[in-house]
Every structure is written in C-alpha cells, then in structure tokens.
Design a protein that fits this description.
Structural class of chain B: mainly beta
Number of helices of chain B: 3
Order of helices and strands of chain A: HEHEHHEHEHEHEHEHEHEH
Low-confidence stretches of chain B: none
CATH topology of the largest domain in chain B: Alpha-Beta Plaits
Largest sheet of chain B: 5 strands, antiparallel
Number of helices of chain A: 11
Shape of chain A: globular
Radius of gyration of chain B: 16 Å
Mean pLDDT of chain B: 92
Strand order of the largest sheet of chain B: 2-3-1-4-5
Distance between the termini of chain B: 32 Å
Oligomer: heterodimer
Low-confidence stretches of chain A: none
Radius of gyration of chain A: 19 Å
Mean pLDDT of chain A: 92
Chain lengths: ~300, ~150
C-alpha cells in the first residue's frame, strides 16, 4: 500500500513518511547513476509544465526513463495553446486518461491540489506559484542527510527568505528534525512574520560572519532581481550576499553549501572547487528522490 | 428576552438567532443566503443592549427551520450565537452554534494568485479554527490564512 496517493505539499507528510522516502531514495541511487531497471516498465508519466522549468522537468524525466518508464512532456509553450480557454480541471481530466501519473508545475497557488481532485491518477506537485514544491524539499533533506546529518543539524539559510518557496518548505521540514536554523537575509527579504509565527523550532535571525564557524549547512538561495524596486538596491543586496572562498576560511571542515539552482551571483565560481560545494550533487540527488516518489505512487 | 420583545414580536414558527455580535446581523443573513428575492419574513434588530455581550444583534426567520449545519456556518463571524427553533410560540430546541472544521462557498480567497480565483469548476473551501480568541480561515487550496474573515464573505 502506498503511503500517499498524491504528493501536493510537504505538510501532508509526517516525519516518518519523510524518512521513509529518503531511505527509499537511497536504494535508487545506483539506478539513478545508470544501472538498468524496469520497475516502471509500461508506465507513462505526464509532465505538465505550465511554467518553464529545466532541472525539475528533466530530473523527473530521467528518473522515469531510468526506471524503464516513458514520459509525455507538455511544455509551457504548448500549455498556453492547448489550454487556451480550457480549465485546468478539464486538462487534468483528459491527461489523466492518458498517463499513469501526472507531474504538474503551474503559476497559480493551489493548482496541484485542484489537479489531485480532478485526476484519476496520482498527482505530484512540482511547484505551484509561490506555494509548494515538495520534491525539492525532499531532495534538499536527502542531500543534507547524505552529505551532512539531519539530526542535531545547524543550518543557515541565506538570501531571499521572503519569497522563496523552497526556503519556506525546507524550514517547515527541518523543524520536524529539531534543527537549529539561522536566517540570514537583507531586511527587505526576511522571512514573513506570519510564517514565522506558525513555526515551532529553534530559529534565529543572524549574520553570516557570526555563525559561519558553527554551521553544518549553508543553504544559499538566489536573490531575485525582479523583487527589487531598482537596480541600485539590488546590486547593494546581491553584492553583500556573495559566498567567496574568503568568507569560508572560518567555516567548519565539513560545512556543506547547498543551492537550489540556478545561481546567479550568490556563489563565486571559485567556491565550486572547494570541498564545501555540494549544489551539483544536490541537483543529482533529485533523481533518486523522484524515483522513490514515482515508484511510491505508481507501483502497488 | 423582555428587551427583545419591545423591538420585535415573538414569532409563531421559525428560527431565532440570538447573541450575534453587534453589527454582524447583515453578514449572518448573507451567510444563510437570505437577501433580495428570499421569500421568508425576516426581522432583524441591531445593537440591542445585552448583559452578556454589551450589545448584540438578533435575527428572526419566520416559517423556516434552518438546518444545524447551515446555522453552524454563522460561528465564523458570530461564535457566541444561540439558536432557538420555535414552534407554536414555544422553544422546541435551543443550541449554541459550533464552528465547523471546514466551510465551503462562504469566503473567497484573498490571494489573487490562488487557483480558486480563476475560472475553475470549484467552490472555495476553507479550514476554520480559533486562534488567539479569533476565528481564522485557511484556504484549502493555496494555504493562505484569513484573519479578518468578515471582509471576505461573498
């Protein structure tokens, strides 16, 4: 029996469910690296991307194909013409007749929840507007567990903490594992008070210089240019949050740096060559994690 | 009760909603779907002095027994409301409204980017609960929380 039929929000999963998925992903790593498998032979996944995405879409596709399944892709461009005048509910009803599961990214919040209501097959949310992106959270947790540790973790989240859905979901999940969380951001991009109110956990606003020597994980997010009123303001902020080898000289030996990618200027390319850089591994871990999720919803 | 009778008379049969927070009677009617075109005889008093509440509103709907589930939706804006179902001028049943766990179709989501505000065949749905002594609602679809529910009653 599957633990869940749809995966819409990380909030729908218990700590136990999360650990279960991470354990399962571990078993898929070899297949993610190329070992042959036919677990999903004959199954078809529909990738419905109403918004552009590269990494998420490709990693779902790779996960599906390496497990012997096939993929129907609907790109943002096709979505806009196919869905012209059609409700999302109708698109989902139709596509769920063609495929064994649906992955959806859509600009409106709550769209994946709606899709789950109208679909005859499992729905996996790959990002609904500023809402949820649960597979990203799971792959972040997987990376942390794999490259550092989940229990007793000290983590700093840096960058845009206001708008980043990745950060919001990750913080919620990390509180389940009793992590010590430091929030580092420009004043204008702080975690919304309303969101903070709902959280129970060890969370503190900090400066990077003060905590760099004690954290296990530094999670960097992109500071989105479009959020700023003017270029000048953006430059000031973006410049002050650039991770360079110099900043890292006080870091713990085993500090890992993560980033959901794409990065712009937040991490100096010189950091890529340090042992701390784990963001490309993190992107790879999306594959075994998505394999674990796809098999969970598609294999009885 | 004596105060109330000064303003509007007893009804023979129907539903009396008492202890409505002052000023909320019109919203109560809206939640119950009573408005222009409704056939029931409805009387309403606002800002009646009340020992318990300071001031309160009262609504009487004649000739109609409104269902409990329907009435409980009132708890969203009038959590202290009491219901009297009247038959032959006597109280047949008296109860306090209880807040349902979820409500459908009464509120609209303030998040403009929420799927419920687009042209989809769904009725907005909200989890409702009490937080810091006030009723709050949370959109089932997008998760947006509404602290001032009055403003979003459709």
């Amino acid at each position: 029996m599957a633990r869940f039929r749809h995966l819409i929000s990380i909030d729908d999963l218990s700590k136990d469910d999360i650990v279960y998925i991470l354990d399962k992903a571990e078993e898929f790593e070899e297949i993610a690296r190329g070992k042959k498998s036919n677990i999903l032979d004959g199954k078809i996944l529909a990738n419905l991307f109403f918004e552009p995405s590269t990494r998420t879409r490709m990693s779902f596709e790779v996960a599906m194909k390496r497990l012997g399944g096939d993929v129907l892709n609907m790109t943002a461009q096709e979505a806009s013409s196919i869905a012209k005048g059609e409700t999302l509910a109708d698109t989902i009803r139709v596509v769920s007749k063609y495929a064994d599961a649906i992955v959806i990214r859509h600009p409106l919040e709550g769209s994946a929840r709606l899709a789950a209501e109208f679909s005859e097959v499992p729905v996996i949310n790959a990002g609904d507007g500023a809402g949820q992106h649960p597979t990203q959270t799971l792959l972040d947790l997987y990376t942390i567990r794999k490259e550092s540790r989940l229990e007793g973790l000290k983590i700093a989240l840096l960058g845009d903490l206001k708008y980043s859905r990745t950060v919001h979901s990750l913080i919620k999940a990390l509180t389940l594992f009793n992590a010590k969380i430091y929030l580092i951001s420009p004043e204008s991009l702080r975690l919304p008070e309303e969101f903070l109110e709902e959280l129970e956990g060890d969370i503190e606003i900090a400066n990077l210089e003060d905590v760099i020597g004690e954290i296990d994980v530094l999670y960097v997010t992109r500071i989105q240019k479009e959020r700023f009123p003017d270029e000048e303001e953006y430059r000031k902020v973006a410049g002050s949050y650039k991770i360079t080898p110099k900043i890292l000289k006080d870091a713990k030996e085993d500090l890992i740096i993560m980033h959901p990618l794409p990065r712009v200027d937040e991490i100096d390319p010189a950091v890529d060559r340090t042992k701390h850089a784990k963001y490309f591994d993190q992107a790879f871990y999306g594959v075994p994690v998505r394999m674990a999720i796809l098999t969970e919803v598609m294999v009885d | 009760m004596a105060e109330k009778e000064l303003v509007i008379s007893k009804i023979k049969e129907g539903t009396v909603i008492d202890h409505i927070n002052a000023g909320k009677a019109l919203l109560v009617l809206r939640i119950l779907g009573i408005g222009p075109g409704s056939k029931e005889t409805v009387s309403m008093v606002m800002n009646v002095p009340s020992e318990k509440m300071g001031k309160k509103d009262i609504v009487k709907v004649e000739g109609k027994f409104i269902g409990e589930e329907e009435l409980n939706k009132i708890a969203l804006i009038a959590p202290k409301a009491t219901i009297n179902l009247i038959k032959d001028y006597d109280i047949q049943k008296k109860f306090k409204v209880t807040l349902p766990e979820m409500i459908e179709g009464i509120l609209s989501c303030p998040n403009r980017n929420c799927i419920t505000n687009s042209r989809e065949p769904i009725i907005p749905r909200f989890y409702v609960f009490v937080e810091n002594d006030r009723v709050v609602a949370k959109c089932y679809y997008c998760g947006r929380k509404i602290k001032d529910v009055d403003k979003y009653i459709v």
